[in-house]
Hints:
The protein is built from three helices and five strands; from the N terminus they run αβββαββα. With 169 residues, the chain is an alpha+beta fold. Helix 1 crosses helix 3.
Amino acid sequence: MKNDKELxxxxxxxxxDRTGMxxxxxxxxxxAALPFGEGMLLHVHYRAEIPExxxxxxxxxxxxxxxxxxxxxxxxxxxxxxxxxxxTLSYQGDLEEVIIQFREDxxxxxxxxxxxxxxxxxxxxxxxxxxxxxxVEGADDADxxxxxxxxxxxxxxxxxxxxxxxxxx
Length: 169
């Protein structure tokens, strides 16, 4: 796909129409924000110069007394993206917040692929928000997810449109 914001916007619109999620309308600066889940916020940024779409979700902050332990666990989870299903955990210093990010090249992006990326990434973000909360509390099982299910950006976990419930009314 060429560097075309209109084509990317059309794909977001098609995904919204198919899944029932609220529209992601890219602003003049090529960004948008969308609330989802329980108090979470998805930030989307289309970078025409690369071209790619970046997805970011803030996960929460870490108290000073837990930083060393929590950051060690987060770094371990980032190793070869194995525990983040292809996403990246980071620390946004100016906001003192842990975030999760995923980047998708738009060269071969289709509405189906975009839907899979969104579904997978948001599921991973929800999983990591819960895991981070357990780490901050000092829970012993913070390194495993509670339901045993795995999901991945790009829909590699077999999820379909019917599983995209976090946006439905």
